[in-house]
Structure formats: structure tokens, C-alpha cells
Model the fold of this input.
Amino acid sequence: MPLRYIFKHLLLPPGGLLLLLLAAFVLRRRAPRLAAVCFVLGFGGLWAMAMPLTVEWAAGRLEREPALATEHWSTLAQQAGAIVVLGAGREIGDAAWGGDQPSHIAFERIRYAARLAKASGLPILASGGLHFGRRPPSEAELAGQVLAQDLGVTLRWKEEQSRTTWENAVYSAALLREQGIERIVLVTSAAHMPRSRWCFEQQGLEVIAAPVGFMGVPNGRPLGGWLPEPRAVWQSGMLLNEAAGLLVYPLLYRGGGQS
Done:
């Protein structure tokens, strides 16, 4: 896991773009033309990542699944056997809460799953393992705590082994098959849904997509979103991660099976 983490964050922006800027500095005397190319690519890439307009454009191409219409929520129990909500990281040791808490993206997914569960009566499976495979509690356990203490919903199943989206699908599918469930309502972020859906379908499950957290909407910023802002850098990084995942996952995992 550490090597995968290091490789991923050095290769994908902004890490890769920062390396280009470093290369520009190192090469500025020995190869000034190459240094200039590295600088333009690195600086231009960072500026593009920082624009809300870039986030809006990129998300619009990744967020392929439409939102689940509210009038259909109450009929979900007629179409599926469970709601599966995927973890999305955590905030470590939040002093206000006395311990780890789901990230705000994870909470957004959990809240949406709770709303669907209340409307439909479907049970929830939360999927998400330990922090870097070592630090408890699991993301699924944190989801269960939030559901019970804050949202008034009891979690039915916890999948606590997974570290990746592929493993979310592998281990969740195994739990669901034991219950005879073959069709699910899948809750995750809108940009994450195409990769997630593919993973679960590779495990033989039918998926009703319930995406949340859409970013491909009008950004509403002054000057149309051309000015850089910190939040856009983070969002762009998430979208680039999804784009890379859509390319790499079929090469690594096509045909099903565990990783």
C-alpha cells in the first residue's frame, strides 16, 4: 500500500506537475528549452487544475449517471435488496468528536443512503476498511456510528476489509450473496459512480445507480470560474484520479475475481 500510494501521488497531478516545475529548475542552464517546456506544462497544468471552470468541465464528462429521481425512492425496495454506500476516507482524531470521523464526502454519501433507506425501507451495507489497512475503526464502522447516532438508521452489514473500490465490490458482493441479494442501490459520489458501478457489475451484481455530490454544475463564480482557487485544485485531483481509474481498472481487473 505505501508504494502504491507514493507512486500514485507522484504520478498524478498535482504531484506530477510539481515534478515538472522541479525539472524546469534543475534543467534551466543545461537544457533551457526543455526547462521552458517543463515550466509551461507544470505551471499551466497547476493553473488549469485551480480553475472552477476546469472542475465543471471535467466533472460533466465523468458524471455519466443521472441523479435518482426523488419520486422513485419509495419504490426502491421493489427493485433491489439492499443499499450499498461506499466509504470515502476519514478525518483523523477530530478533537471535537473525540476520534476519527468520516470525511465530508463520506458523510455526504452516508446521509444520502440514510435518506434513501428511510424512504424505501431497504437495509444498508456500508463498505470501507481500515485507514491504510492498519488503523481502526473501519470506515464501515464510522458510517454505522453516524447512521445510528446522527441519522436514526441502523446499519445492517459492515464490510471492513476493503482498501480500494475494486475490493469494495469484491467483499460487499460476497456478503450480499450470502443473503441472496443480487441487485443493489449503489450510493457513491457522482464522479466515482462509473468506476464503482463497473466494479460491482464485474462481481455479477445488478446496480441501480444513486450518485450524489455532483460537481459538473454551473460553478457560479465571478468571471465564469477562470480565476484559481484552492478548492478547485483538490476537486480536480479527485476527478483526475477517477479518469485514471477508468482507464486502469479494466486492464487490472477485467474478468472479475479478487485482488
About this structure: The beta strands are 82-86, 90-94, 99-102, 124-127, 157-159, 183-189, 206-212.
